[in-house]
TrEMBL record:
Membrane spanning stretches: 101-119, 139-158, 214-238, 250-271, 283-306, 312-332
Protein name per its UniProtKB record: Tricarballylate utilization 4Fe-4S protein TcuB
Keyword 4Fe-4S: no
Gene coding for it: tcuB
UniProt keywords, alphabetically: Membrane, Transmembrane, Transmembrane helix
Record's keyword annotation contains Transmembrane: yes
Amino acid sequence: MHADLLQEARRQSEICNACRYCESYCAVFPAIHRERAFADADLTQLANLCHNCRNCYYACQYTAPHEFALNLPKILAELRQESWDDFAWPRGFARLFQRSGTAIALAAVVGLALMIWAARAIGPAGGEGFYAVLSHNAMVAIFAPAFLLPLASLGVSLRRYWRHVGGRPLTRADILAAFGSAARMRNLAGGHGDGCNFEDEDRFSQARRIAHQLVMYGFLLCFAATSVATVMHYAFAMPAPYPLLSLPKLFGITGGVMLAAGTGWMVALKLRADRALGDASAWGGEIGFVLLLGLVAVSGLALYALGQTAAMPGLLALHLGAVLAFFLLTPFTKMAHGFYRLAALLREAQSRR
């Protein structure tokens, strides 16, 4: 990580430590106030613990034009991006995709092209529904590595982060505290539960918190739909297609609607928010990732609606191409932030013991 970035984060954290006005705002400030001095690892942990709600900036009396010129959300956002670049495995990909919406769009196009090629070259295996376009075995051969390899990459990256910040073996209490905080998005609720100032400095809002919850729980429901369908296929010999009132369809449709609504809402909030309070260089990559995730949701819902029409093969290629790009890019896009934030919450739970 750049020494000047770390030094500026250290300077601002030391001033915040002396002031303590924002102590109740989020988990960052109690973590700051536990320290007398800030090592590089401490600053990395603070950066990944920060949810960029911006309440502290709008409440601070030491922002510009004051000579201290504090902008803690911005410096922590920049340091957070640097940490993801440094811990990513293999290195190099993270910097490309974290900061470039164009690169993400190109990856989605490549994923779509691969799906079209696979549908034509491999073809069906006499199945019904989607399998009339691309066989089940071909889908497994394509998507199993696309799912497992990014997981392995994330595992290496998170291990590097955990060792850097001095993480210890986890207890049940650590896990419950961290997952509970993540499930409620507690650090996006503001110090008094009124919400944050992310999109409007003069108004507290729960909008960003709710949008994140829609995305998180929508994604989990979509993942549950795929998982349940896999169990039904292999354990109970019940291959797709499934009826509307089956668990895969109920989970998938509900999750898709939540995911589409959440990603659309997040883009709208980001367009209204002040880019000077985040890492401006990563803005395009963040928008590109959210739009890619939204494309996964919308194309999946379109498949549910038009799966029995002539549009199905093209929609299937579009959806699977978006899903393929999403999985392969997960360790190198904003999707990784969820894993790092959870790791930071686990480390914070340990520090509070």
